[in-house]
Each structure stands twice: as structure tokens, then as C-alpha cells.
Design goal:
Blueprint lengths: L2 E7 L2 H11 L3 E7 L4 E3 L4 E3 L2 H9 L3 E2 L8 H6 L4 E5 L7 H4 L4 E6 L11 H7 L4 E8 L9 E8 L6 H24 L32 H10 L6 E5 L2 E10 L18 E5 L2 E6 L2 E9 L6 E2 L18
Parallel strand pairs: 1-2, 1-6, 2-5, 6-7
Antiparallel strand pairs: 3-4, 7-8, 8-9, 10-11, 11-14, 12-13, 13-14, 14-15
Helix pairs in contact: 1-6, 5-7
């Protein structure tokens, strides 16, 4: 017997989960994704990656502004289960009640980092590992029983782009490994420890700004957590500069600089390695940045132009 499944997801990581479903003895009767968005300066209508893949595979695609608005159409598909991953919408209880069970593929080791940005927060907070949780969906956000968890290492070189890719592979493998046992009640869910809950809410635009009053490692983690998008930024005067990549530096190699001579956020120098910026506990090297109206480039191309030698160039 093939179980009928509806899948909900939006970004590339969710495409990997959908591919995992395809390898199982299930019938994918519908795919629900976020509505199309206008992207870029030209405001071109762009399909979400899950929708694009689903259309290529010939699946029925729904894109309600709110899932509840498609209740009757979802009900008509007569699915046994709903599977979600990085969908980006709240699913009301009346929709969940249509299924024998609804399983979410969540990109953290629950109960840590409930919410929409678990990968970003794991990097931002300097975590050394993260993972995937297969959990039962309930009305409360990411609070259901956990059926399975597997972890992976966060490397110092990882940004959110590389970690999303790794998590997609892990999630796909876990779907193939555990999902049928969940469907057939061979895996028992474990309640989450509410005393250990942390949250990873979506970052508003104003929180993408770098705080140069923090230690170098915190700033470095913040930059890689937001790379390759949405990308952290800082202000140089009135110019908004996006900063995509940074490197921690060995302070012993910079012993000729007295950090007390510089202000936090001040550009100390630009050389072939990049741009050296003062932080609260030393220096951080900016490697890739994007000036207003320009393309992303290596920071060694940044032209320091001063009106006089005493002028201080400083990020704020």
C-alpha cells in the first residue's frame, strides 16, 4: 500500500527533502509552496525552488497566501500524511487534523532553536554542531514529539549556504531512513524538554547590521551566519556596505599595531589580504564586500580615499 502524502516547503533545502520522499513507497498527491515573489532590482516574478522542482516533476502545486485558505482543496487530495520542511507558514490545526500525522523536518537539534532561522542562529552563536530533527507537528511552534535526530559538525569555514547544503543532504537521508517507520508507528516520539528550549526567530532587516562593539569572533560568526544571503552590512558614513566574508587574524602577527590607537569599527589598512578593521578585542579582516551600486568584490580592491591624513574611516 502506498501512503498518500502532501509536501510543504519553499527553499532549496526543502527540495532535497522532497527528493527523499520520491525514493519511498509513497504517492505525492500535492506540493504546497509559498507564493511567487518579486526578486531583484527588476522586480521579476520568481518561483520558489520547491515549486520549480514540483512543476518539473508534474506534481500538483498549491500556493495559498495562507494555508487555511486552501483547506477544501487540501482536503480533496485525501492525503494520509503531511510532510513539511522550511515552509515558512503557520499551518492551522484544522489542516493538521486532516491527516493521520504531520511530520516536520526541522534544521536543529530540538529543543534548541525552535523557529524559522535555526541554521543562522547556530552559526551566529558559535555552535560546533547542529542537526536535523524529525518531529510531530502540533499547534505550538516546533514543540511536538521528536521521532529521530542526527547531528553534524559545523566547521569554522561554514556559512549558512554551505550548512544549508549539508543539512539538506542529512535531512534527505533521514527521511529515507526513518519516515516509513514513523508512518507505521514503529518509532515512538519523545517529548521535548521545555526547560532547554531556545528560539531562532527570523531576523528583521535592521538586525543584519554589524555591531563593531563586539569581539572579533562574534562579528565573524555573524557575518558567516548571514552569508551568502541576506548578507550582513555596515555603514561607512552614509554608504551601506555589504560584508560577505571575513577572517579571524592572529594578533601576534599584528603586534606592530597598538589596538588602543584605533577606534572600534575603524579601517586600519587595506592590503592584498583584505581590509583590517578594529574590534573591541583586536582586529578582523574583511575579505569580500559590496559597495553601493557595485558588484561583490575582494576587499583588497577597496580604495581608501581621505580628504586629509587625520581623517578616520570608520564603520558604524
Amino acid at each position: 500500500m502506498k501512503y498518500k502524502v502532501i509536501f510543504c516547503g519553499t527553499p532549496p533545502i526543502a527540495v532535497e527533502i522532497l527528493k527523499g520522499l520520491e525514493s519511498l513507497e509513497v504517492e505525492i498527491v500535492g506540493v504546497i509552496s509559498q507564493p511567487d515573489r518579486m526578486v531583484g532590482r527588476k522586480k521579476e516574478i520568481t518561483y520558489p525552488p520547491v515549486k520549480q522542482y514540483a512543476l518539473e516533476k508534474g506534481y500538483k502545486v498549491l500556493q495559498p497566501q495562507k494555508v487555511g485558505e486552501a483547506f477544501e482543496e487540501i482536503k480533496s487530495l485525501e492525503a494520509d500524511f503531511m510532510i513539511t520542511c522550511a515552509f515558512g507558514q503557520f499551518i492551522p490545526q484544522k489542516v493538521l487534523d486532516l491527516f493521520k500525522n504531520s511530520i516536520n523536518v526541522h534544521a536543529s537539534l530540538l529543543p534548541k532553536y525552535r523557529g524559522g532561522s535555526p541554521i543562522h542562529y547556530a552559526i551566529m552563536n558559535g555552535e560546533k554542531e547542529t542537526g536535523i530533527s524529525l518531529m510531530k507537528m502540533i499547534k505550538k511552534m516546533d514543540a511536538g514529539e521528536v521521532y529521530a535526530q542526527e547531528s553534524l559538525e559545523i566547521l569554522n569555514t561554514d556559512d549558512n549556504g554551505s550548512l544549508f547544503e549539508k543539512m539538506g543532504v542529512l535531512g534527505k537521508n533521514m527521511i529515507q531512513k526513518y519516515l516509513m517507520d514513523i508512518f507505521e508507528n514503529k518509532l515512538v516520539g519523545v517529548e521535548q524538554d521545555e526547560t532547554k528550549v531556545t528560539f531562532a526567530y527570523n531576523l528583521p532587516n535592521e538586525q543584519e547590521k554589524i555591531d563593531w562593539q563586539l569581539p572579533s569572533e562574534n562579528i565573524h560568526n555573524f557575518i558567516r551566519a548571514l552569508s551568502p544571503k541576506p548578507i550582513a552590512f555596515s555603514l561607512l558614513g552614509e554608504e551601506r556596505i555589504k560584508i560577505k566574508k571575513s577572517e579571524l587574524v592572529d594578533l601576534e602577527q599584528l603586534a606592530h599595531f597598538n589596538s588602543s590607537d584605533f577606534e572600534n569599527g575603524q579601517i586600519v589598512l587595506v592590503d592584498k589580504k583584505g581590509m583590517l578593521v578594529k574590534t573591541v578585542d583586536g582586529f578582523l579582516r574583511i575579505v569580500e564586500l559590496q559597495r553601493s551600486g557595485k558588484k561583490m568584490s575582494h576587499a583588497n580592491t577597496f580604495n581608501i580615499s581621505k580628504t586629509n591624513e587625520e581623517e578616520i574611516l570608520k564603520f558604524i
